[in-house]
Amino acid sequence: MNKQSGIHYLREHREAGSSKPVPVEVTRIRDTVVAGLGDLLQGAFDAVDDSLFELANNARSNNEQNRYFEAMREIRIKRKGVERHFQNTVAQFFANPPHTGPIQEDTLGRQANADSLALVGDDDLEEQVALNAMVTKAKAHFQGPLLQLQARFSKVYDGASDDAPVNPMAPEHLCSAFTEAIQALEIQIRERLILLKQFDRYVVSNLGMLLDEANRILVQAGVIPNFRYHGKTGEQHSASERQRSADGREDPAVSEGARQDGGTASNAVFEQIHQLLARQRANAGIPSRQHDPNIRIIGGHELANLLASLPFSTQAASGHNLSEGEPLTIDLREVVQQILAQAHTSDGKKPALKEIDEDLINLVSMLFEFILDDYNLSAPVQVLISRLQIPILKVVIKDKSFFSKTTHPARKLLNSLARAGIGWSNSDEKARDKLYEKIHGIVQRILSEFDGDIALFETLNEEFEEFLAKENRKSSLVEQRTRESERGRIKSQKAQELVDRVIKERVARYRLPESVHNILLNGWSRVMFLAYLRDDVEHRWQESVKVVDDLIWCLHPHQEDAERDQWVRVVPGLLKSLRAGLEEVSYNASKLDETMSQLKHELTDAFRTTSSLEIAEQPPVQEEDPDEARNKAQLQPEDAAVAGFMVQIDGIEIGNWVEFRLVNGASFRCKLSAIIEEADCFVFVNRMGLKVIEKTRLELAHEMRRGRLTLLEQGAFIDRALDAVVGSLRSKTA
Length: 734
Hints:
Blueprint lengths: L7 H9 L7 H34 L4 H34 L9 H4 L13 H20 L1 H14 L14 H11 L7 H14 L4 H14 L18 H9 L4 H9 L7 H16 L11 E4 L1 H9 L5 H5 L13 H11 L7 E4 L1 H19 L5 H8 L2 H10 L10 H12 L13 H16 L5 H53 L6 H20 L1 H4 L2 H15 L5 H24 L7 H17 L17 H25 L6 E5 L5 E10 L4 E5 L5 E5 L1 H9 L3 E3 L5 H17 L1
Helix pairs in contact: 1-3, 2-3, 2-8, 2-9, 3-7, 3-27, 5-8, 6-9, 12-16, 12-29, 16-18, 16-29, 17-20, 19-21, 20-21, 21-22, 22-24, 22-25, 24-25, 25-26, 27-28
InterPro entries: DUF1631
Protein name: DUF1631 domain-containing protein
Pfam family, one: DUF1631
């Protein structure tokens, strides 16, 4: 799938929010929040798609199955519009922030009373109850960050005050923006509730990181920098602080990263994973080592210094080709344990990691396990990224905001490398490709130059993005030419098929004179072909068809006076149109006068004769072969099986990448460049913008059913990895 989370909607929401100047301090928050919500919303829609597909597969009747498939199709078709509407509305909140209600605890559990719901329909009531529950839960869970933001936004915006506070990021505003956006979807209440449930799960439940980032930006701008909240929700983010107090000392590296991010709450993703891992240890009965008198806890700079002694790669040290061989598998836990075993302690105690650092190492290890199993990542790039396990571990130990900040330099670089290499196949010529050479060079530089300064990743990412911009300009031009060429070719092909069908249908009805038959098939068909291609501008197609019909009608003998009068009126204009058209296509230029004279003779004879124009013999109607009928009956179940895959094909959008597998076992990746509706044609191109294959919608569905077509996920690479890790941990601790 799309995915549009990065560029063009920012322009749109700036335009949408231009009605009122946005305070300077808020502009950065707006862009970060809209981009972050866009990414979260994509995850919600993907989950809705999976839920509906599963419900359709488990449906108890064909009607129920069709209902889910239709809902899936409706959502896929209008998904981009809903996302854009939601993001534009949220952006508008920052330009004209609505007043926000109180967040006191006594209002969090307040339910709608009977009077307010008396005139609400059952479906609307269900939806309103779901929304109320969603908003209530969010206000309770994020009470601290919301109070801080409300105070700071009210300070920034003119006209806001303690009595009339504003907060563009209040849950009720975001939820109302989403419900407004999904009004365009023609789906029933059950599917609408599924949408709301996944919005709650993927967007609202993950607001914490965006709220904390917004608070951090305002604190940096000097907006009420000393405001702290110590309520119940403030305790939800204090796990790492309790860990430091239990050790009796503070990890300098972690506290520095926390200060940079505006507090440990900004690492909400890691905190969530840390809690899941802690629950997993508790379920397994693993005791805490933190208070063991025979163990000395190692963390902070001491751990970072120990990791600094780890070699990045023996291949990098020897100048070896990093792309050779299989993806590199490293047991990071074992590597760190070996380093600890070699560490000397003056007090004779056994060195051990802090649980929070151990969880960081486990998380990096799980991330790279996902990377090595991720089919969406192209094999050559997968090999290269696998070499970065130890550098990324060093980055994470120093700054765990890697997991929570989508703008973290190392995270951005990994996402860029994976996104740029999605079109790679094993059969590609790596040695001759500039893109692969660039990715290889970036990995080589990280392995040889990274000394703990994360700025290296930022520098490399800027260089890579600049390189990609140049490469994309070239491939975009080629792809545009390919797309235009294919559209022209397919339109010409369709035009020729239509012309042949129209003329053959009319000529087959009667035994026309040989000269007329020759003019229509070899001359006028070319006139009709050009008329079809120009019809968008000049509307000549129907006129060219009418000439054929008028010519055949005039060749009929007519006895009635009215018809003969009409014949006299039609023939001069008909001959004039025929001559002009044939001259335009240079039909038999040397003998055109003779041809037209012969045609006049045929028309005159038809006017004088009293016999009817002879009707051509119709071919006998053949009865359907019993074997053929049986084959058609056997195809019906197959068509039903393909129906589900047709819905998935309808969800493919321009720019999405897929992989085709051939019968001989070979495979290649390509991108959907154009969907030519009038010809039911999907055109795919390679990374260079050159056409590689074209298929109809039905052919693609059959390819998918046979397992020869795979849709590649194109969301942010690290985000997908984190989602997979969190999902795996939740299933294990459930």
